[in-house]
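pasting for ref
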Amino acid sequence: MSRVSATRALENALRRVGFRHVAGVDEVGRGCLAGPVTAGAVILDPDRHIPGLADSKVVPPDERDDLYEEIVRHALAWTVASSDPRQIDHLNIHHASLDAMRRAVLALAPAPDVVLVDAFRIPDLPMEQRGIVKGDRRCAAIAAASIVAKVTRDREMVALHQQDPRYGFARHKGYATPEHLAAVAQFGYSEVHRRSF
């Protein structure tokens, strides 16, 4: 996937018609075998441009860390929320992802007037929202949310690796790599593995 910088065109258009606080929300970790699904929600400051925002999947790790620091320092508001493997198994991955995104949005202060969501609509939000197809590639606020969620989740997977290095979480972050599948075959599931896929 080639890197395309996300723009603020959608946020700016919404501000022009009266929406003041425009949030972007995205989740990461949906396709993993282990660890949480983590959602980020970000309201960017319209007066502080952060260059280089793009879908977290196409940003190199060191640059992603730098962008994370810029986002948390300069955004008007940002939050993360996660659904752990037990919640994922109880709700299913789709509903657990939506629940994490909803909790992340509701924790923002100031509260957003409108929410831009990567692809989906989130049930039970008390404010306007729009699902944006490929939003993490098109919309700066969604890209920022993607980066905040990805860095937060990656750090959690590194911490889980330090607690139990058998599975290699620091390297693959819970995705189904050959190394991870071989470790599961050898050691079985850990407490942080999902039982439903």
